[in-house]
Structure formats: C-alpha cells, structure tokens
Amino acid sequence: MKHRFWRSFFTVFALLVWVVFLGSASAQRKPNIVLVVADDLGWREVGFMGSRFYETPRLDRLAENGLVFTNAYAPSANCAPSRACLLTGLNTPQHGMYTVNNSDRGEDTQRKLIPTENVRVLPEDITTVADVLKAEGYATAAIGKWHVSSHPKEHGFDVSFAGNQWGHPKTYWAPFQVVDVEADEGEYLTDLVTNKAIQFIEDSKEEPFFLYLPFFAVHDPLHGKPDLVEKYKNKSRVDDQGRYPDYAAMIENMDTSIGRVVDALEKQGVAEDTIVIFTSDNGGAEWISDQAPLRAGKGAYYEGGIRVPLLIYNERLISKPATTDVPVTGLDIFPTLLEWARAPVPADRTLDGRSLMQIVRRPTASWGPRRLFWHFPIYLHAHFHVGDGARDPYFRTRPGTVMRLGAWKLHEYFEGGELELYNLQNDPGEMNNLAPMLPARTRALHAMMQEWRKNANAPIPEEPNPLYDPSVVPPGYEYDPEAVSKYVSDQSPE
Questions:
Q1: Positive/negative CA dihedral, 265, 267, 270, 271
Q2: Tens digit of pLDDT for each residue in 232-246?
Q3: Domains of the chain, start order
C-alpha cells in the first residue's frame, strides 16, 4: 500500500511538471501576425463599414468577431509613403518619402513653390517592423505589393513574392508584366498572391510568423473575374457605389482571398494565437468610386483621401463584435505589432504612433483628445478635375500640413498660408470652413501644428517657382465621363 502511494504520488508529480513545462513552453512562443493591406480601398467600400453594394462577407464575419475602428486613417494619402510609415512607425518627415517618383508633379505653370525633394527608396538603415520581428525569432514574409524599394529582403523579410518597386501590375491576368513572378498563362494575380500566403502559413506553423500581405487589389487597372463582373453588372447601384462592375468584382475576390487565409490559419491550428489586421493604404480613388459623404479621395488630405477601414481580429482576445470611434492611424500598427509580439521598440526609435492593444483588450477605452498629423510638402497632380472635391482642378493636393484634434481638423496650405478649419462631427464632408468664424480656435490649433513641425523637423517649401504663371490654363481640364471610363479601364494612375 505504501509503495503504491508513492508510485501514484510521483506519477502525479511528473505529470504536473510536464504540464507546467508545456505551459511554459507555450507561453514562451511568440504569437503570429497577419497584416493585410488593401490598395486604394475606400473607407466605406466594405460591408462592415456600411457599404450596401460591395459584398465582403468574409471581412464582415471577422468584424462580427473583431474590433472595428470607425475613425481610422492612413498615414499618407497615396501608396508608397503610407506603406513606408506603416512599416517603420515613422511619419513622413522622418523618412522623407512623400509620394511616388518626383515631387513636382503637375503643370509647371500652376506650382507657386519649388517642392521639397522626395525620397524614392526607403533607406536600408531604417529599421522596419520585419527587422524587429526577425530578430525576435519570427519567420517573416512580404507577399504582394511592396513599392518602397527594389526588394522586401532589403528590409527584414525572409520570404518575398511579387514585391518590387512597381506600384501595380499592367494586368491582373498572367503574364503580369512589371510583376515578375512565375505564373500559368491567365492566372489571376490576387489568387496567386493568396496561394503563396497560404503556403507560407503552412510552412511556418511550427514557429512564430509575420505575414505581411499587401494585395495589389483593388488598385487599377480594373480587371475582375468575368463571373463576378457579370454579377455586378446586373446589380443596381446603391449610394452611388457600383460605377464599375470590375471594381466591385475585385473587392469581392479580395474578400474571398482573405477568407481563404483565415481558413488556412484555422486549418493549421494557429488561429487562436494569430492577430489579423486589415486596412487600406489610403482612401479610395474618387474617379473610380465615390467617397461621399467624405470629400475628395486618394491623393487629397480631405477625409476621402485618408480615412480608411481598419479591423483587428483575434478569436482569443475579442469574443464579440466591438467598435471604437477613437481616432487612430496606420502609424499605430508598428507599436501594436511589437506589443502583441512582446518585442522591444528599437533603441534608436521614437515612434509616431501608439499601440492599439489597450483598445483591443478593452474597446470602451478612451485616450482623450489626440493630435494626428499629416505633412505633404510637395505637389500631386489631379487626374480628373471637376467634381472630385479637391481644392482646385489642377492638383489633388498642394503643399501643406493637416492635423486632427478631437472633432477639429485644420489644413494649412503653404503657397498662400491658407487655413481651413472643419468640425468633423458636424461636417464630415469638410464643406464649411470655420477658420474665418473661429479665429481663436484656428490660431490655437495652428500653434500646435507649428510646434509639431518644428519638433518633427518637417520641411516647408518656400522658394518661388520661376515657371509659375497663373494666366496659363492648361489644356485638357474638362470633365469627360467617357474619357474617365476609358482612362480608368485602360491605364493605371499613381
């Protein structure tokens, strides 16, 4: 009896030690990350943000079990700088990338100032989130659009597929031309990217992994799968959405692809230990899909150009649908991923965002009034010039700085020092400039903006452009719907 007791005791003790060991080993494993970034997807072009035309059932399902940010912003209004901000956690003055290619885009005669020179390639010595996570033992992959340098492997990614300096394919059907990958004739790019993402999950399931999944979709050219295109041709437009059936088809196919990735996480048994973040790199292209009630679209710093969908999903942390109206930005993703991964902030880095994990864990949390800033000391020309909500027909935006604090949003444009003040709670479309009526508030916000620029060492262009001639009216600035349709279908504007 005595020996039986001790055998039982040691058996139970050994089992307890083994359970503790397994629990400790499990706790030491870093959790996984899947960061999905759509290209040029507008703030309400998904069902969970209110679209009644575009169909996104898989994203909507994630929203039903996740956290939706209703006041989320891209860190920039166009592709490359937004991605540079997201990857580094640094606002544009810290890395110097403000646009794609040159900074003096548009008609010479319409630019009053010589713009700040643009950094076209993200410097290799700037630490990215992939660099940090790789040092923490993560397998890292960038699968899809890259657009900030010649190759993701220069910035901490072990695995790369389809990523180079180009911002979009010439066609979504193989061969893709500027996207140099092996593919069967006629293979669809979004599906191919998704297949590679799923393969990475399968290959990396035994170790912590970071999958950066920036789709080329839904950037033009507008090439949808024929069956989905036909579906949307036969669907009535709602809320002025549905201008282009191909665009709707691309959105639904991307949604299906995201669902396939989530299914792969569940199949491999890693979903519970994976955080999934979905967002867009900038606002939607106004010439493709109306951003109303927001003003303007991609390339502008009115709400339509920078307001984006943002969803965070993890089945262990978030057990029921939740929303928050706390204003957040893509700059917050870097510190969020580091906190989720229990990884340190780089010693040489002062991040411009803050971790969203507090809100993920308690969606009712409030940060109080928070200052958000966007700086754009260059020019970005307009593609279509009447009715797009921009300040004038020649540029989507001119050099300036924009800030948000609470419900208030202040714009400053450097050419003439113009200030525009809007109350987003009452005027989300930024139609009623309150700066002349509220001079004290305008001055107070402007002082905060000037202080931020000084601390951020943000460049302000001041040199006059000798070619500026306001008497010249460039040709081709008439709005022609047929020309717009042909342009959108056949070409790919930045």
A1: positive
A2: 999 999 988 998 999
A3: 30-368+468-490 (3.40.720.10)
